[in-house]
Amino acid sequence: MSATNLNPAELLPHQGRKPSTEYGSETRTSESRTEEHRGNLYQRGKDAAVQAEQKFENYVSAHPVKSVLIAAGVGMAVGLLLGRRR
To answer: Is residue 31 in some structural domain?
Structure first.
């Protein structure tokens, strides 16, 4: 075989690997699994946020004075920290 008539398929046989035409379907399958996993993570995060919001609202409703005092304290602390920078 001369150097000008080289066939890449003959030089690099598949050696038990799949031909490149079969990788497309595996890639699509992997992409769909990734998309499904992303959707599941999004839904779990959304559910956790809704649950945290409900717990927060229940706590504030049960302890209104304590909640206001905590918010005032946090606001004062942030104000003091930001006021020192100037």
So the answer is: yes
**20 half-sphere exposure, CB direction, 13 A CA radius:** 3
Residue 72 domain flag? yes
Instruction: For residue 70, give its domain range.
Output: 21-84
Q: Is the pLDDT of residue 46 over 90?
A: yes
Write out the two tokens for 47: 């559910």
For 16-36, write each residue's pLDDT tens digit: 565 555 666 777 788 888 888
Which range, of 6-10, 12-16, 44-48, 72-76, averages the lowest pLDDT?
A: 12-16
User: How far is Cα 26 from Cα 63, in angstroms, rounded to an integer?
Assistant: 55
Q: Is residue 80 part of a domain?
A: yes
Total tally of structural domains belonging to the chain: 1
Give the span between the Cα atoms of 45 and 26, in whole angstroms. 28
pTM beyond 0.70: no
Q: Which two tokens stand for residue 35?
A: 């998309």
